[in-house]
Amino acid sequence: MLAMTYRGPQRVRIENKPMPEILHPQDAIVRVTRSCICGSDLHLYNGNVPDTRVGETFGHEFIGVVEEIGTDVHNLKVGDQVIVPFNIACGKCTFCKQELYGNCHEANPQATAVGGIFGYSHIAGGYNGGQAEYVRVPYADVGPMVIPSGMHPDDAVLLTDVVPTGYQAAEMGGIQKGDTVVVFGAGPVGIMAAKSAWLFGAGRVIVFDQEEYRLDFVRKFAQCEAYNFRSIEDPVVFMKKTTDSLGADVCIDAVGAEAAGSKLQTITGRKTLLQAGSATALQWAVNSVKKGGVVSIVGVYGPTLNLVPLGNIVNKGLTIRANQASVKRLLPKMIEHVQNGVFSPRELITHHIPLEEISDAYRIFSDKLDNCIKPVLIPPSARV
Amino acid sequence: MENTSKDYSHIKGWGIDADPKNDPTYPMRKRGNETHAGYTWERPPLQPENMEVLHSNERPNVTAVFGTSMPPKGLSGMIRRYAFQYGEGSFGHWLPLLVADRVNVVEGIVEDLKSGHVPNIFAERGMKAQWKYDRKGLLQGIAVAAAVTTAAVLLLNRRSED
Ligand SMILES: [Zn+2]
Ligand SMILES: [Zn+2]
User: Fold this and answer.
1) For a disulfide at A61, which of A36, A37, A301, B71, Cβ 3.0-4.6 Å?
2) A59 Cα–ligand 2 center, Å
3) What is the distance between the alpha carbons of residues A367 and A372, in angstroms, rounded to a whole number?
């Protein structure tokens, strides 16, 4: 089967790999019909995530058709079209029981801090991902959900990560009616976070980014204010001035480790990898939120230390909430919102690219070429 | 400063998920007393461990399922084994892993050449797309790389003449 493989920083290619096999009674094999490249894949692509091994296949956002099931799979049958959440979760451990499916303790031997994720290096369990024709899906009874009839596949594939992650960013903010919400980052997740903030009753939604085309996009898609931080001397001062000098009620970091905007953070966090990513967006979030406010983090950071403004967090009595999205918990509600037309996630997809052109797809997404917001990959077996 | 109106009715779905009880402690409220019992849940069946799987020293064992994409091997594998002696939060763990990743890239090229495949770095880096959408950036990148290479060659030549 064809699969994307990682060969080194900014080097990926399509290769013939052996078909995945059932290795556990609760496994399923899924034939991929759509997969996406995600902003967090770029951390892998750039070689910034420790224990990313040559030959691995990326891709944690995919949907497909069940081709084969293990002896202990009961909720799925061969031929089902399924949405597969990006987190691999057992459904039995103490964390799964709390619906913290992103924090499962039985899916990732290599680390305890993060759960198992498809195609996200060995630090997330060493699973091959969905940027391929076929993929092994462990705990198939727990995560996957059958796609409701009539749902567009481009909508469905975004429910594996982007939509629930953006929604959970807003949910973790504990937004109350009338709140001013700031989202740092107008990538697909930031865009969905801004859109979701309204559903919790926000009174004002503001987005910061550095790409004009993304700012235009988010203004239209999420009906919010959007500003280019490159044309603002200090985004924190700007936020104070526009909120009666108090700050926003809720700030969302939808950027994570590869944030631009601060030279010190760029050098220590992105170029020399001396900290777990450039925490510029997080700095801005902490500093521009109101005292007693909430900072919600869904941007991905590496495992170890960061130059975090801890003093200000304590002094301001902030609540900081952060997690990988609990996709399975949110899926039923997300499906309902799509069916009622509250969300139309597929509008985020700007590029449909054949899986065979994976190297170019990564370049386009990574360099933000051709006004790319979100690319979706179509394997040859799904095109007939 | 621009401000939005107080009428949000134009936004489809405004306030439909509003819940004053959705305070920022929400998922934690789901925690019951049984969660204090520790590592006691009924574990799923265990995936047979017929390959080398490294596991965090912060847990006693391998998880019930695990990925099998690329078992550790060669020099990079030795460095990875060393890294897993250290906790997830320490430099001792993740700096060796990053070093192993770089070593692994070289191993990948050697492996390619051994199997008679010369990696097409130009294609792997997606330069066809860059040529199409960002010709200036690509040419600048090549110019910088050429300048750095030339400087390095000159420097090395001068050293060898000394
Ligand atoms: Zn993703
Ligand atoms: Zn679990």
Assistant:
1) A36
2) 21
3) 9
